[in-house]
Amino acid sequence: MDLWLAQMHARWLVVSGLVREAWAVPAVRRGMLASLLVALGAISPAYLPENSPWYDLVPFLTTNPVRALTTGLTLFGVIMLADAWFRLRPRFDRPQVDMRVVVALWTLPMLFGPPVFSDDSYAYAAEGWLIHNAVDPYGVGGVSQLPGFWAEQVVPVWRYTAAPYGPLALQVNHLVVSLFALDPYWSATLGMRLVSLVSMVVVAACLPALAQRVGADPAVALWFAIGNPIVMLHLIGGAHNDALMLALLVLALWMANKGRFLVGCTLVAAATAVKIPAIVGVVAVALIAMPPPPAGRATTFQRQFQAAIVVAVGTITSLLAFVVISLACGLGWGWIEGLNVPGMVFTIAPTTLMGSAAAEVLNVFGQYDLARRMVRIFRQVGMIITVFGVLYLYFRHAFRKPIDFLAYALIAITCGGPALHPWYLTWWGTFLPLTHFNRRAIRISAWGVVIVLAYSFMQFAERNEMMVLGLIGAASIIWFGWTNDRVWTRDNEFNSAPARMVVKADHPRQHVG
């Protein structure tokens, strides 16, 4: 007992020291204030359900002055959070702050507030409530099968559709609802947010070891993968179950790095039981856990053939584990029909945008019947292109750089799928720092973060009936990104940084075998 207490005391000293070091950095304190502003801005009609208890606690919540105030607070919070993140990017000429501590501090202000930039967590809670009452969440009618407070928290567009998530995700929702004493609000807010937070803790714990394996800088990987404003605002603030999928995937790679083939494949199956796109992770897990023999011991054909066998065995193992997990969840196979649910709404998916543009052109020429089918046609073509794109990436990257394949395959899936939400970008954003994350890639990725933040704020302002303020705010965020890019370009930190700050294109540890 005394030894255990001494160990706990030593760990406490280490953690408290890291917290003090982080708090001493102005950018960390600025980011925490930014999170507080965003949390306060979330107390607005933008994403609050009509029966939210906040309407009773905050008078005049639906009035234009309050809408304008909360929209303005959110804008300042988003810009300040992005600014703090940029200022904390790892540099060789200053002490590095532990991003895991930073994320913990930034999460605190929004921990008990309503979901940020999304209302999906209310649907999670309602689906967990259905399971608690032995109602099939994949059934026709969705959460509306059980009318009441839980269903009324869900926005109408998702109230009457089957659950689009895997069986493991739904059982996690059920567990959260049970742990929070069947309380609709706290289950949907604090409960679901804690799942996301714990998931990001897993990612933060496993990512440094994976970065070291491929020769990447762990500090850069943590800075982009978990400190990213999109992660803070959407995965944690919005309490999306994508965080759980990513945690299981990263944990699978970490186990594969230790040679645990079966465990890694099972974790991929678990991630797939949350969201289907995680299945591509089996390629990286299989090849990392059981790499082909070195070049000197076998021909190139023999090594590639062995890699293909390993991937095939890993895929079969993951599929069998997926079946077992699905049967254990006891929810049947209704998730298959639910796969088309995300595409029922208009999103910024490239195939949807191109199909909508083509439909508008055809409407001008009076081709109304064909115009109505254009979005579906473009989505189907997009899915076909995505399949062939993933196959190309497999032959191009998987054999020598399996984590590169995983990151690029997730990019292809997000861009070619029928639906694309801002938080989908975290799928590949988690693994991108483990690839050739050089100076150019960092700049392009930073611009991507800025654009996603601008779009997210415009959506928030539109939902708050403040579209003019939304356009002004989006322009302000883009201007901030442009200013930061100019500063970044003038900064010579990457030109004179040690090699560890920039991943070399042919680092030997990136290659399998």
Automatic annotation (TrEMBL):
It is found in: Membrane. Keywords: Glycosyltransferase, Membrane, Transferase, Transmembrane, Transmembrane helix. It comes from Naumannella halotolerans. This is Alpha-1,6-mannosyltransferase/alpha-1, 6-mannosyltransferase. The lineage of its organism: Bacteria, Bacillati, Actinomycetota, Actinomycetes, Propionibacteriales. It is a multi-pass membrane protein. GO terms for molecular function: glycosyltransferase activity. Pfam families: MptA_B_family. The keyword Nucleotidyltransferase does not apply. The chain crosses the membrane at residues 68-86, 98-117, 185-210, 222-255, 261-288, 309-336, 342-365, 377-395, 407-429, 441-460, 466-482. Belongs to the MptA/B family. One of its GO terms (cellular component) is membrane.
